[in-house]
Amino acid sequence: MHYDRVGNAIMKHCGGPTNFIHVTNCMTRVRMTIADPALVDMASLKGIEGVLGVVEDDTLQVIVGPGKSSKVATVINGLLKGDKTEGKPSVSVEQKAKLARERAKKQTRTKIILKHIANVFVPILPALIAAGILMGLNNVIVNSAASWALSHAVSAVGDLTPAQVVLEQRHLLGISQFLEIISKALFGFLAIYAGVTSAREFDGNLILGGLLGAITIMPQVKELGLFPGQGGLIGVIFTVWLMCLLEKQVRRFVPDMVDVVVTPTIVLLVMAAAQLFVIMPAAGVVSDGILHGLNGLLVHGGIAAGFVLSALFPFLISLGLHHGLFPVHLEMINATGHAPLFAIQIMSNAGMVGAATAVLLLTRDPMMKKIAKGAIPTSILAVGEPTIFGVNIPAGFAFITGSIGAGFGGVMVVLLGISTNGVGAAGLSALPLISDGKYLQYILAWLVGCAAAFTLTYIVGKVRGYDKETV
């Protein structure tokens, strides 16, 4: 991809530099806050070579693929920075207010909440993926050593467990400890990171947000009848949201001369008390209820729950709402050590790959073939957005048949008892995250979802005459 060319084209078709308020990116999308959506040329935007799809939401999301989104966003931000230095007009306060009002009219309260949660976790996502993969690799090393120790009756030596004795003999103990430190540094302090990104999302003090997150994991909370992490990330996000509201109100009445001292002190005292004596206990009840409800659904709903949940996930991904489930996955890991719902979620990847492969074989459109050939390997390796937006949604029916096929992958996940001990990307990248060494079972479930989606898409495509359509 020619990143400069794509970045310039996106800026041009989005109304020029003065129409941009904010530009960022996630794994596969360039996310842009636009002042006046009427100035955006959607047809030309979708026609840019290298653009796989466009999602219109509270932010305008241009899908370009993993690894490319950050580079394109960097190009656009560089252009915007250069434009400001030249003294050209930027987005006015009135335009920002107008945009905020338009957003409020379009968004439902539920969707707004989910989008805020998604925005909290998007900045953490690369670290989550990296730490999850390293945790998975360490689990492979440790589980292999534990199995060897058990089968050969290896005994503990001093402070070393039998598994650690085997790792020491294999000269892998230091590597295992190194990987464990990295993964625990992420998952052990995730409440702090979530506090910081929540404060950024709700326009508050970032360090105060991180401090409120840190309070929840302090061992001393046991003295108040709580346990570290009670209420989970849901409680942290809610607390920081309240903190940001309080900070704005306090600042209105505190004189500027003492603002830097008085405002943070008042905000911290009030919110820490509310967090420890009200929010953590209440959020703990909510968090436990969600976890028990989902576990009950997976246990008692069986294969039907696996099918429905996997089939629905492509729709969440297409709306950009799937990141809103990260608190649930992480709470499951904190509570049980596993995230069975995430294993079901990533079956959406299999369904989208299977459907896109069928479209590749059916279509007579050379541009669609070109896009599919680039999107399918990317989705097999990591994420499903390239096949969702580049192939299946443009084909129409393939998105539906691919979602149904993903449901069969979810059925296999439930039947084979597959779970993960981390969260991250899908496809082959998820292999290190699979818990209990069920790597072959995961591959089998993925192949079943892929095959089901391919078969359904191919049959429906033939019936609809998709293979006979010409450009």
UniProtKB/TrEMBL annotation:
Keyword flag Cell wall biogenesis/degradation: no
Any one Gene Ontology molecular-function term assigned to this protein's record: kinase activity
Reaction catalysis annotation: N-acetyl-beta-D-muramate(out) + N(pros)-phospho-L-histidyl-[protein] = N-acetyl-beta-D-muramate 6-phosphate(in) + L-histidyl-[protein]
UniProt name for this protein: PTS system N-acetylmuramic acid-specific EIIBC component
Pfam families tied to this protein: PTS_EIIB (PF00367), PTS_EIIC (PF02378)
Location(s), subcellular: Cell membrane
Domain PTS EIIB type-1 residues, every copy: 4-86
Classification lineage: Bacteria, Pseudomonadati, Pseudomonadota, Gammaproteobacteria, Enterobacterales
EC main group: transferase
InterPro entries: Glu_permease_IIB, PTrfase_EIIB_Cys, PTS_EIIC, PTS_EIIC_1, PTS_IIB_1, PTS_Sugar-Specific_Components
